[in-house]
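tool=predict chain=A
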Amino acid sequence: MKYKFISDSHTHSENSFDGKDSVIMLADRAYNLGLHSITVTDHCECNEYAQHNYHSDIVNSVMDVVKAKALYSGKMEVYKGIELGQATQNKAAAEDALSITDYDFVLGSLHNLKGEQDFYFLEYTPENYHGLLCRYFSELMELVEYGCFDSLAHLTYPFRYIVGNGMITFDIRFYQDMIDEVLKKLIEKEKALEINTSGLRQIIGTTLPDENIIKRFHELGGKYITLGSDAHRWGDVGAGIEDGLRIMLKCGYTHFTVFEKREPKLLPIL
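tool=predict ok
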């Protein structure tokens, strides 16, 4: 590997509703790839917290990570994380989830708008995508204002499906002012921005967000960048992370970020 430190800070085990493999399988893949660290960030969708019994899922995830951490002690860092979805739609659920353990890392996500299904399930037309995106960036600002996370996951999440499923192309510059407001608020609150590499494995073919937004974050003074494959099976652990590091270098970054006990640690890219 070209890079001394490679870390995957966004992975899902079988303790996520859409995860396929055990924490041990994810960690074993990371170790065999020579990763410096892996963070397991199983899902907690706050808007469906009670219906899905996410509390139990999180407890199981934490227990599995503790076992993996012991197994790989001295060989590779294994961090306890959580992907906290739609936290502002049920703040009581978010607070309960965050009280379960002493996490190393909390991802903040917005997978669906209030009263809507996940963007994955929506149907997109040239008439409706603009309104959905405006609502998305507005609610994303609410999430960043709430600030219950360490890094904002896949900022351009809806693009994955508007472009990939709806086959709709649009000029992202139309939304630049709204994106800038999100980036500025992240910087103000000293939060990280994630480079999510899952889009490289999908129709959209770019990281989420893409290089232009990462460059803009750097121009505005953004310091912290985390990288995550968003793997839901062992075979995708670490996928695209080196691509993400190349993008960071191109945008002017010299270090990326991992979180330990909710504190940012800057690691050199080269």
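Strands lie at 7-11, 37-45, 77-85, 105-109, 151-152, 192-196, 225-228, 255-260, 263-268. The longest strand covers residues 37-45.
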